[in-house]
User: What shape does this take?
Amino acid sequence: MMRLPKFRFFAPTSLAEAAKVLAGEGPDAMLLAGGTDLLPNMKRRQQQPRTLVTLSRVPELKGQSPDGEGLSIGAFRTLSDLSVDSPVRAGYAALQKATSLVATPLIRNQATLGGNLCLDTRCNYYNQSAEWRKAIDNCMKAPREAAGVFTEKLFLAGSAERQQRSGDEPGSICWVAPGSPRCWAVSSSDSAPALIALGAEVVLVSHEGERKIPLAELYSNDGMAYLNKRPDEILTRVLLPSAEAMKSTYWKLRRRGSFDFPVLGVGASVTLAPNGEVTSARIVLGAVASHPVVVEKATSVLVGGPLSDERIAAAADAAVKLSKPLDNTDFALGWRKNVTRTYVEGVLKELRGDAPETLGLLARRAQRAVALPVIQPG
Amino acid sequence: MSKVSIALKVNDEAAEVSFAPHKTLLEVLREDLGLPGTKHGCELGECGACAVLVDGKPVLSCLYLGLEAEGRSVDTIEGMAGGPDLHPLQDAFADLGAAQCGYCTPGILLTAKALLADNPSPSREQIREALAGNLCRCTGYLQIFEAVEDAVLRIARSSTSEVAAQ
Amino acid sequence: MSNVVGKPRRRVDGRAKVLGQTRFADDLSFPRMLHCRLLRSPHPHANIRGIDTARALAHPGVKAVLTGNDFPIPFGILPVSQDEHALCTDKVRFVGDPVAAVIAVDEDAAQEGVDLLQVDYEPLRTISDPEDALQNPEPKVQAYGKGNLHKTVAMEFGDLEKGFAEADQIFEDTFFFQGNTHLALEQHATVAHVDPDGKLVVYSSTQTPHYLHRALTKVLGLPAAHIRVVAQPNGGGFGGKSDPFNHEIVVAKASMMLGRPVKICLSREEVFYCHRGRHPVQMRFKTGVKKDGTLTAVHLQTLLDGGAYGSYGVASTLYTGALQTVTYHIPTYKFEGARAFTNKPPCGPKRGHGTPQPRFGQEVQLDKIAVALGIDPADIRLQQLLTDGAVTANFMKLGTIGLRECIEKVVEGSGWRQRRGKLGYGRGLGIACSSYLCGAGLPIYWNELPHSGVQLRLDRSGGVTAFCGATEIGQGSDDVLALCVAEVLGIEPFDVRVVTGDTDLGPVDLGSYSSRVTLMMGHAAIQAAERAREMIAVSVAKKLEIPRERVVFAERRVFDSENPENGVPFRDAVILGEAEHGTLGTVGSYKPPPSLAKYKSGGVGPSPTYSYTAAVIEVEVDPQTGWIEIPKIWIGHDIGRSLNPILVRGQVEGSVYMGLGEALMEEQAFRRLPHKRSGALVHKMPSMLEYKSPTTLEMPDVVTYLIENPDGAGPFGAKEVGQGPLLPIMPALANAVFDAVGVRVDEVPITPEKILAALDLKRRTGVGRVGPGKFPEVPWPEPAKVPTPWEGGDGRATNETPRRRDQRPQAPIAPEVPLGIGNRTQAERGVSR
Assistant: This one.
């Protein structure tokens, strides 16, 4: 049986206590926010925090409330709850779809929104047991000298330090791009591209206070230092702006209809004026880089005109250019890049209101998967 | 590492159990509470064999710390029948070939039980979706879907006859 | 009129399974039990220079450390491939090869001990695939074989040149079938302890307790009678638990050394390293046909990537050629097969053992032939069916053949005649057929003994207990055993207690492999039950004062067929029998009929009879992305007779499921790192997340037709159903993709990437095909020349010296070893601390 390494355990019952414990334990502590990603990583000795601080008993993180005309969502809400939540369904389809597509129903009952947003980046050379990684002499994300020990402090390690560590010596290489000074592990969150498309902000709380940043700014395009969050900070809330007049969706690509992480995710939102003119648009790609990729060019291509086939094609062109999958997930990378076009076009056509049967088979599947009725809360 | 002790409810009975603090609920159930009915196929959340109900919701016991179960109510396959008679889902699974090797069966039965608690008459698509986190390598799932559908009818029949008896 | 045969019923072990009370090996626990973890090699190929165990031994909680020095005697499932050691002695041959074992008070301590072991390795060049093995005879992965070729075989049945000369057209195609694994949900587990009387007991998740018993006897040097192997119900097998495994032998030895129970349960990753799954096979089919589609000659070449050990590999290699002839009439046939050793986990038997790969090639090529000749693919198959009882070119003696009905059913059900080729671009139908063994005609090791035995005990309680070595792996063998006894004795299956999988308590059954259990154990059970019935009938006849012939057993009664009122309850009938004959007990056994294939290697392929299957698959293919979906499958299976239709349907649908996984996504794939930086060769995805196994959302609707045409060779007419229905799925899917979008994927799995690549090729070159190119150059041996039955052949090769019985590779049935555990000194038991 794969078992966890040993750790110290804290279960604070208030946010203030959690922040204090976290500060006191230092960078070798990690937050447990559902555990469906962290615990497997710990069992594989990818991450071996000395201390775990569970957020399961912190009431402030579980609630949800209107926030002006928007919505404030506690980071410890489970993905299951969000996928059947009425305000989310009504105003934020991209989030509803993303949360209903993560992993499996069983995992969604445990996994939380905050956990999914802070999900460790993934790579076929990294998400392996310590024994397997030894067989490839490890990689820079799970270096041999750390014996699989990897904590949030490495998130903050500057690129200069990694530059020094890179080179040919074992354990400091990125096997998917051996010439590269950085790690190319893949951002694999479903909710992140959906929420960035929706214009979300997140609140980070530490014992020193709190700060609010756009969600997009939480991430860096670096497989190791992927989170711009200090180890003593807790992601407490997700803030969504008013959803009025905005339409959104999220499509996920993967081999199977459940279990699998995305090999491509497309979150999109558009606001259409009564005359059909696009007044705002955001397209965000997941799982094609070490961070969610905002396709800025798509916004400039789409805003100011109708969602015509030509404009949609131009937006898709812009997305394909930014979609740079590597050979470290499921599916051949060329094919994944190829599907980016299909997905971005399909997503925009769905938002335009095209009938599903006018879309291709894969696009219909992407829609059908999320259109499946979900269990109503009891 | 010294053991920790927690109190919880297991199959509707109060229980106290001591275990090494880094153990998962799966390990605590199988090794410390003497309930080996909960199975494991990967211990990484990739198969669904270890599903149990915590406060009525199906979760993966392999990714659930034993410590997190403090004060909660855990249901395992051992408590599903609740007496000499099988739960209608168990009867239907046994009658209709939904259990071949029987290894994924406890997790699937508990997941299906939670489904029916939320949605007493699910469609085939809803059954598929609810069980999409439980791998089965023997059956090809079809007899499992049929057994869940049959259990719905059995439950409806028994509640009808209860009403009739009153 | 049958009592229970053919009636849909709850299986006898159904209640235990839904209660979670089935005890799998890892569910067992004993007082003072210790736990074992294995250290596995991080190198694909390396010499072991030394192992430092001192730090591990000093670790708190660690009780013992074992290494290859503790296991000098090799083992292996086949007598000709005794190439495994419980722990590697001198070298490691793949990433995951077990090197040392740590036994400790709990799994954590054992793993910590493993982490403290230090092994000094000398890396060797890696042999990564069959081409590599062909080009590099050195360094040798195994000491035996020619270079890195484990085995080459060649045989020719009839005058092949004449066959090709008679053809109007000759088709040549190459195919590749990727390896895949069983992925049974239960991970392998074993618990061993020494009984109070000093005998060794090993509980294990094994499909073959008898073969494990033999391996333990050999490696541990104990008398077979002092070892008891208990196969716990398996949480799925599919062939993956058919070899004796390292960990089973390690914990057996450890429990003897330490005098305490020792358990091991493998991690999922370790199960991928145990493997023994589907061989990756390259194939070349050269086939001659007449204009009307009649086959005149087939020349098949196969090259198997065997991995690092022999396992069942010699049999697997022969199986890639043995069953091509039993589906359609092939007048002349040549088969050449080779298996290479490579530095990867060993391949072996997975559901269909060696036959799905060439079945894929044969059925896809037949589709191409039909298209080229303008014949309906269903018709080209119907045209050349074999007749009941036929003997094939390679001397396989067939039983009943229900393939015509299978094809007709799926053709009708799918609307094949109206819909094929007419569903529009992107949608299509494909058909394929297959046949499979109902039990291997020969055992793994040469002997004249029964393949299955059943012992019955009946007593004055009316209770009937059936004892048999057969192993319940989920397929329902316990149910078949109870059913066969109940049917004969006119009682209910639930009235029969079954005791199975235990080498101490039941007569030998060779194991749950080769689709043999229903047929062989069934016959043994029927014979035992008929003998008991006869004894009881005689006594009841006297009591009722009627002739024996009029005594009937049904509905838990024994009565007069002419006056059903005149009778006794079954229990009273047993009492009458016991009063007359003394304590009642009977035995039955079964051995397959002798094979007609007398040529060397003719031992693989013969079976008492064969099952037949036909399938039609409907697909949707997205031309833009190559994405593929399967709305529906129709499958017809010639079951002979369904004993319990619920279980039969479950086997058909389960086979369809597993076949779809292979067809669409499952791959036991490996990764090499850039050569100049690393010699690593690792399993690409040894996890249930990345080894893609279809979920509830991928399973299409399946319409199952059971063709019931009882075969005299089977118990109550039954044939196998556990493996055959998997075989047509992969080729039917490939053929459906062609019907949908006009491209050929001559490879398994058939993925969106490959379909899209084929569509691109078609656009650019006009030929839409992805698949392997040239078949590699293999140094084939001179073929054995065997004249066919229609050439007057007698089943022997004209260029082989006939082998006498005493030249068979001899393996002792039960090697004599003088000492048991109990009367050995500690030093003799090898206790090192």
Summary: The radius of gyration of chain C is 27 Å. Chain C has 19 helices and 32 strands.
